[in-house]
Amino acid sequence: MITKRIIPCLDVKDGRVVKGVSFVDLRDAGDPVELAALYDEAGADELVFLDISASHEGRKTMVEVVRQAAGVLSIPFTVGGGIGDLEDMFQILRAGADKVSINTAALQQPELVENAASRFGSQCIVVAIDALYDPSEKDWYVYTHGGRRRTEWKVLDWAQQAVDRGAGEILLTSMDQDGRKNGYDLALTRTVSDRVRVPVIASGGAGTKDHFVKVFTQTRAEAALAASIFHYREVGIEDLKAELKQKGVHVR
């Protein structure tokens, strides 16, 4: 039986953790290395760090954050944001990350996914997909550049392409739900997790323990990611796992 994973996400800007709603209105949520250590102790299964100020200076800041976090963590962690080539990946992995997450660069140069999987192994390569529903098209489209630019890719088509090219995992974020705390986008998560052959991490919308129960029992998502409800201590990871076990969800 697959063990479901709980993954706090740390959006890092200029060396600090921030959180917003639908990718805007950011507010400070703390020191990334301190939060990483707290989540490790609290029973998180993995962590995701996303560098949302990924200029050249932001990248240097992030490498140092990764190096410091690697010194306090015993759980795997993934780093994404502004990673544009194999050298960026190498620097992040060498600093101590277990996986790298790519979004915009993967869409701009799909061969990067293949090359990265070949060099570092598929298990290290996460393709992040920011999805927004288009009611007129009755489908989800992929967005890049931190949710600012729509592409012509439909989410399911791109997810399948990314996996075919070597992605070992899909980090699927609903922009419609992000930060709103009214639940994961179950239809989106189900659509993708039913079709691809690699683990899907559901992201965007967690607000209660029941939202995790639903995403794990009503879709094939193997992991669920959340940020603000953990950062502001609205839901504790230990309590969440107890609730999931009670509802028959297999967790560590």
UniProtKB/TrEMBL annotation:
One of its GO terms (biological process) is L-histidine biosynthetic process. Its main location: cytoplasm. Pathway: Amino-acid biosynthesis; L-histidine biosynthesis; L-histidine from 5-phospho-alpha-D-ribose 1-diphosphate: step 5/9. Its EC number is 4.3.2.10. IGPS catalyzes the conversion of PRFAR and glutamine to IGP, AICAR and glutamate. The HisF subunit catalyzes the cyclization activity that produces IGP and AICAR from PRFAR using the ammonia provided by the HisH subunit. Keywords: Amino-acid biosynthesis, Cytoplasm, Histidine biosynthesis, Lyase. It is found in: Cytoplasm. It is an enzyme of class 4 (lyase). Heterodimer of HisH and HisF. This is Imidazole glycerol phosphate synthase subunit HisF. It catalyses: 5-[(5-phospho-1-deoxy-D-ribulos-1-ylimino)methylamino]-1-(5-phospho-beta-D-ribosyl)imidazole-4-carboxamide + L-glutamine = D-erythro-1-(imidazol-4-yl)glycerol 3-phosphate + 5-amino-1-(5-phospho-beta-D-ribosyl)imidazole-4-carboxamide + L-glutamate + H(+). GO terms for cellular component: cytoplasm. InterPro entries: Aldolase_TIM, His_biosynth, HisF, IGPS_HisA/HisF, RibuloseP-bd_barrel. The active site is at residues 11, 130. Belongs to the HisA/HisF family. Coiled coil: none annotated.
